Structures are given as structure tokens and as C-alpha cells.
Amino acid sequence: MTNKSIYGLTFEQLSAWLLEYGHKKGRAEKVWEWLYRNRVKNFTEMVDVNKDCIQLLQDNFVIETLTEHIKQEASDGTIKFLFKLEDGHLIETVLMRHPYGLSVCVTTQVGCNIGCSFCASGLLTKKRDLISAEIVEQIMKIQFHLDQIGQGEKVSHIVVMGIGEPFDNYENMVNFLQVVIDQKGLAIGSRKITVSTSGIVGKIYEFTDRKLHVNLAISLHAPNDELRTKIMKINRVYPIEKLMESIKYFLKTNRRIMLEYILLKGVNDQQQHALELADLLKDIPQGAAVNLIPYNPVDEHDQYQRSEQKDVIGFYETLRKKGIICSIRQEHGTDIDAACGQLRSKQMKEEKSNI
Ligand code: SAH
Ligand code: SF4
């Protein structure tokens, strides 16, 4: 049996495991600090940890399991990493520079089964869920990269918006959040984390009740069921009315919700759609904001085009006039393969054609 990655354990799990072997909580705290504060890549670097404990960790765990396959850097500082998992699958992780900090977009699954009609990730059906350790390690890899640059920069924000549907890999995703939020380690503030979902309603309730206090983003993309079902077939299972009820429930806990809306030329970007959207959101409490997303063209989805600038502005202004808080997403890394899942799907095509 191969050893498992230590990044998969929450602090409580690590403490409980070490205690079984007679190592008290103080030792778990030290190990945790070495992992996430000093960010060692080898257990033997934990110089003030008892030798037996180091041996025990070495016998049972590994630290690194991902390898860097490709790294693309855009002129605005965005870096897209393609990592190879132990079983050879490729995943994407993106580092973005914002005025307010450094944010990392993580992948949660190898491919995605939700199959939205505009998305590059959905083209490649799900091969498997990532385990929690593999999601944590994406953050660590980026942090190692920053540590290497040596300017003391730290990942400050996380968006769970890479390949995959996080609520279709719920336990691993929650476990990941618990590790990165932990105050003794990476200590990324829960308010600086956003999880994006295509709208798996049951899980929105469960997640709300879990009280992790992170922000939620919902991929809405259409103001009515007919159109949303055309764009996202998951709407058949979780129609807009049910989704709205779950959003209201989440907002009761006072966290923020971002409603994501990709603008697709002539499909969902006209005045009538903006008015319908404003109407849909009129009884949603404060705390919900709309984020208009410029469509990133995907070769295989040539039925869609990017909206014209005048329509983007028109849509935005109509929402604002109706009192809806809204913004237009700032694009990152437009000179690299920026759309969700695009670098991975391109790379896989290239590697296939080279065989
Ligand atoms: N599965 C989750 C999270 C990953 S997708 C979800 O769907 O929310 C993250 C975001 O990227 C979603 O809002 C998704 O709609 C958007 N996205 C996917 N493909 C895109 C494309 N080609 N152009 C612009 N945004 C895209
Ligand atoms: Fe999956 Fe999200 Fe892409 Fe839809 S948009 S196919 S849910 S990754």
C-alpha cells in the first residue's frame, strides 16, 4: 500500500492519530506548524520533533504527491499550473494577483459530470474525485512557488472554481476547507474563501448548516427555467425556484452569495433577460450580488460567442437601475488558456495527437 498524503488530515485527525501512538497534542501542534507555517517538504526537516514521531510519520505518510507538468505565466502575473496526480491525471490550478491579495483557484475533480453546455471541463466526464489532500496540496504548491520567490507573499484568498463540481465531492471539499482555514496553519480567513456550485440544492442546505462561514457563488447563468435548462441541464433536477429557496436559507447565516452569470451573445444577454433577472432577485435579501462573466470561447462549444460590449454594459446598467448590486468580472490571464478547464483539455488533446 502506498503511503497517504499527510495533507489529507485535519488538525483534529492528526492529533487523534498521533495520540494513538502516545504522542500528545503539543507534538501534533509542532508537526502542524512545520507543515503549514514552515512548509517543509520532508519530515526529517522537523528538527525539534521527537525522532520516534518523525519515523512514525515517515512510515505512514508522504508530503508531496503532485508534480508540476506545465506552468504558463500571463503578462498580468496570472500563473496557470497543470499538475500531474500520482495516477497520471492532469489538473489545473491558477494563481491570480488582485489589488486586495493573491488568490488561488483550485480544482476539485478530474473532469466534471454536470455537463454544462458552455464549459470546457464538462467536455471530459469525471474520471474521479480529488481526495482532500490533493486539493490542499494545490494551495501548498502555489505557496511553495511564492516562498521560492522569497518576497514573503502569501496566498490570501481561495476560490473553489476550477475543474469539477465541489458539491459533488462534498466531504473532501469540506475537509480541505477545514485544513486551510485552521488558525495554527495556513490560516486563510473563511471570509476570503468562495465555493462555487452549479446549484446542487440539497448540498447548499447541508453546507449552510455546517457553518464554515465561507462565501458561496452560484452559477445561475439564466433568469428562467426554460433558458437555464438549455444552458445547464442540471436545472432539470434543481430548478430556479428551489435554488432561490436554498439561497435565501444560506443568506440567513449572513454570509455573502455571488450569483454568477456568463453573458452569451444573443442567448441570455438581452434587455429582457436583465429585466427578468432583476425581477427574480427582487425579494432576495441583501448580501446577494450578481457577477457578470465574459464568456471564454471554448472550441467545442461554437454555438456560443462572447457578448458585444454594448450588451454587457446595457445588461449591467439595467440591473443597477433596478437596484441589483452587480459587477463585471475582471478577466485574468487572457493571453494564456484562461477558461476553466481549457489548458487541461487542450493539453490532453495535444498529448493524444502525439501518441
Ligand atoms: N462547478 C462549479 C465550479 C467550477 S466552474 C460551478 O459550475 O460553479 C466555475 C465558474 O466558471 C462557473 O461559474 C462556470 O460557469 C464558469 N465557466 C465555465 N466555463 C466557462 C467559460 N467558457 N467562460 C466563462 N466562464 C466559464
Ligand atoms: Fe462542471 Fe461547473 Fe463546468 Fe458546469 S460549469 S460543467 S458544473 S465545472
UniProtKB/TrEMBL annotation:
Which keywords, in A-to-Z order, does the entry hold? 4Fe-4S, Cytoplasm, Disulfide bond, Iron, Iron-sulfur, Metal-binding, Methyltransferase, rRNA processing, S-adenosyl-L-methionine, Transferase, tRNA processing
Where is the organism placed in the taxonomic lineage, from the top?
A: Bacteria, Bacillati, Bacillota, Bacilli, Bacillales
Q: What InterPro entries has UniProt attached to this entry?
A: Aldolase_TIM, Methyltransferase_A, RlmN_N, RNA_MTrfase_RlmN, rRNA_lsu_MTrfase_RlmN/Cfr, rSAM, rSAM_sf
Domain of life per record: Bacteria
Supply the NCBIfam families for this chain.
Answer: rRNA_mod_RlmN (TIGR00048)
Q: Which GO terms describe its molecular function?
A: 4 iron, 4 sulfur cluster binding; metal ion binding; rRNA (adenine(2503)-C2-)-methyltransferase activity; rRNA binding; tRNA (adenine(37)-C2)-methyltransferase activity; tRNA binding
Query: What protein name applies here?
Result: Probable dual-specificity RNA methyltransferase RlmN
Keyword Aminoacyl-tRNA synthetase assigned: no
Domain Radical SAM core: from-to ranges:
98-335
Species of origin reads Anaerobacillus alkalilacustris
